[in-house]
Every structure is written in C-alpha cells, then in structure tokens.
Specification:
mainly beta, Jelly Rolls, eight-stranded antiparallel β-sheet, 15 strands
Length: 202
C-alpha cells in the first residue's frame, strides 16, 4: 500500500525504472490510466509505458516538452497541448475506447477536447508495464534521454473508461473503483536508483 507515498527517481538522466505487475485476463478494449508526477524536467520523458511483444508503445503516456502530452495506443498517438506547469504536481488521466476510437485526456481534474485514436484496436493482455523509462522493446530498449526524473505517485490502470465523475474522483484521490493496477495495493519491483518516500505535501 503506497498511500501517501511516492517513487523518487533521483538521477537525471536515469537508468532506473519500476516494473508493475497486473493480472489481465483478456485484451483491453477500453482502459483508463491515471498518475501524478512532479518534475522540473524540460526534456522528453516517459510517464507510463505498457509494451507488448507485438507493439512497444501499446499504451504510452509521454511528455515531449513542458507544454505537451502524447498519448499512444497501439503505436499511434494524439497530442494534447497544455499550459506549462508551474512547478507543481500534475495529475493526468488518459482513457480510450476501442468501439469509438475516442481518446480522453484529463489534466488536474479537467477534460481536454477528445480526439480520435485507433478505432477497433485491442491492446494485448500480456505486457511489460513500467514507470520511469520508455520501452523500445518488450521489457527494455531504453533511451536514457527519455527517462523520468522526479516523483511519481497515484498510479492506476482500469480496464474500463472511467466516467467524468470518477475522473474527478481520481484527481481528488477519493474512493476509486477496483483497478487492474492500484496505488493502494501495487505489485511492483524497483530497479536501480528509485526510492519510496513519504509524500512531502498534498
């Protein structure tokens, strides 16, 4: 249970990462991924990387620069332009549904205009899921200059698209529905220089 705790990736650039273990029975037709990050990086960095044997960017949350997030499904991506952070925690949620190909992006509890992405696609269930690095191969192939440096917390993955109410709930860290990956019952393994610390402030 990592409630009120964070992963601190101390080095920049970093070769550290955290492997997350999820029990997925079948391919994902819908999903929502949420997390909180705190960093002063201005270079590109990966936040959440879900690679399968067929596709290294099956799900990827990536920040190429301070004013932009990229959300990948099945190797294709859409870009969400955002105001540059003011040196505070940023909470992001991205959800996708296969039937409509609709990608949703929420930043700090607010929705951005929806975009179209990979209609009819299914994300394979057997995956290497990582924080801190962007996989260019199943479980590896890292580029240090896409690594994350800073603090990560409140990582969740659901096998459904969350409703707007639940998206806001995730931002407020209130009661959330059962998840495939849940911060309060996370199965993980830290590799390299990653430290679990208490969160400094809410």
């Amino acid at each position: 249970d990592l409630y009120r705790k964070v992963f601190v990736f101390r080095n920049d650039p970093s070769d550290a990462y955290v492997v997350l273990r999820a029990q997925l029975e079948q391919p994902l037709q819908n999903f929502t991924v949420c997390l909180r990050s705190y960093t002063d990086l201005t270079r590109p960095h990966s936040l959440f990387s879900y690679a399968t044997k067929a596709q290294d960017n099956d799900i990827l949350l990536f920040k190429p620069k301070p004013s932009e997030y990229r959300f990948y499904v099945g190797g294709k991506f859409v870009t969400f332009r955002v105001p540059e952070g003011r040196g505070d925690w940023e909470h992001v949620c991205a959800s996708w549904e296969s039937a409509t190909g609709i990608a949703e992006f929420w930043l700090n509890g607010k929705p951005w205009p929806r975009k179209g992405l990979q209609r009819g696609y299914a994300v394979a269930a057997e995956a290497a899921i990582m924080l801190g690095q962007e996989q260019d191969a199943f479980g590896g192939g890292f580029d240090l200059y896409n690594s994350f440096s800073g603090e990560l917390a409140d990582v969740y993955l659901w096998d459904v698209g969350l409703s707007p109410d639940k998206m806001r709930t995730a931002y407020q860290s209130l009661r959330l529905p059962p998840a495939v990956l849940a911060w309060k019952s996370l199965s993980y393994e830290a590799k390299g220089d990653v430290v679990v610390k208490a969160r400094l402030r809410e």
